[in-house]
Amino acid sequence: MENNAFYVALSLLVNLDASLFQIVVLSLQVSLLAVLIAAVLGFPLGAAVALWRFPGRGGVIVVLNALMGLPPVVAGLMVYLLLSRAGPLGELGFLFTPGAMVIAQVVLVLPILAALSRQKVEEMLGEYREQFVSLGMSRGRMMPTLLWDARFALLTVLLAGFGRASAEVGAVMMVGGNIDGVTRVMTTAIVLETGKGNLPLALGLGIVLLTLVMLINAGAYWVGERTRRRAG
Amino acid sequence: MTSLNASLLASSAVMPPPALCFEGVAFSHEDKLLLGPCSFTLDGIGPTLVMGPNGAGKSLLLRLAHGLLSPTEGKIAWSGEGRPRQAMVFQQPVLLRRSAVANLIHALAVNNIPRRVRSKLALDALERFGLSACANKPARVLSGGQQQRLALARAWVLSPQVLFLDEPTSALDPAAIKAVEAAVREFHQRGTRIVMTTHDIHQARRLAGDVLFLSGGKVREHTPAEAFFNTPVSPEAQAFVAGELLE
């Protein structure tokens, strides 16, 4: 029985294993905070690229789209170099802290949120443009209106970003270091347990991770559907 | 409409709406001349109905006048100081993905109307256009007629001096058309300059004070409604009024 991954996952959850609890909470804290920061920066950025015409706009769109596929280890390496003792931000002493993990995940999630919101906002702008100009709205004034009216599409975009953040292991491993009790998250713990040969525990952790992601997605879907029905 | 115009002219309370003047205005796209050059002045009491066959340039003329497009040649000018407050109602109403009342509040907000009076103005306008029951419904699930009335209510709260309407009833059933025409009359009575396109000659007969007749991107005729319907001058207008199918 104790070699069965589902049994392990269940007993981890039922016994409210303290170290597991810590790992789960840290995972959620890091990924949710990273998605929040990336949204605050990425949605206005995406909307701005959709709204304004400027030289090099096509290049910006291509770069944003390409960065959606940025390998997590590359993002991790960049943040590692930035935060390492000899790096430009080394004095902050951020490396191997949860803060560094948040930064790395922001780097990964930001292009997804910016590129996809740019696309959604641009579609909506095509429909609204004449009415907006008729109302005498400036581009800056159009931005909040468009972001709010695209809220249902942006919720899905947010989930895509959260999926990317919670699933990646390379970046948080490099800048966090998988330190027990400090920077260990679900994905790095799974890598560790697999390396140690403790496959049932690794799988059990995987099941817990999947369940959490499902719950968050189900919650977002439920909220989205409810508000969508009310707002049409 | 003649009796209405007479009463409007008699009432000194109504300020004449700002006059619109096209001076040699032309619009081309990719070297193709789509409209003009045309010169005319809308300084009567209106409403001005812009008529003509499909592709004559009616919508284009409205968009140029409203400032959604810039003419490639010529000049568009308004009487009085600066650009008058204006609004436009489109064939397909463009409504935000929010409740009916939130659509009006948004329009008021972008026009810097103080926050404390927004809801009252919005609810009053909804009541005026018979939409009170729909105030909190999502604007986009309303019927076509209700949506168009909401678009008119949105224009109403902005108290425009000029209102452009681009085929506002072409997708509506008779009851909804009646409601829209009643709304247009209300704007007219408030002293708003109405410039409206339609291809429905019966509608034009019901509403028009003067008619601007376009065909092939040129203004063929600009005359009082009575003269246009009874004694059209240009051969195109004669054919149009006689009900012939114009190319």
Automatic annotation (TrEMBL), chain A:
One of its GO terms (cellular component) is plasma membrane. Residues 24-220 form the ABC transmembrane type-1 domain. The chain crosses the membrane at residues 20-52, 59-83, 95-116, 146-165, 201-223. CDD domains: TM_PBP2 (cd06261). It is a multi-pass membrane protein. It is found in: Cell membrane. The keyword Transmembrane applies. It comes from the Bacteria. Keywords: Membrane, Transmembrane, Transmembrane helix. The keyword DNA damage does not apply. InterPro entries: ABC_perm_TupB-like, MetI-like, MetI-like_sf. Coiled coil: none annotated. GO terms for biological process: transmembrane transport. NCBIfam families: ABC_perm1. This is ABC transporter permease. It comes from Marinobacter profundi.
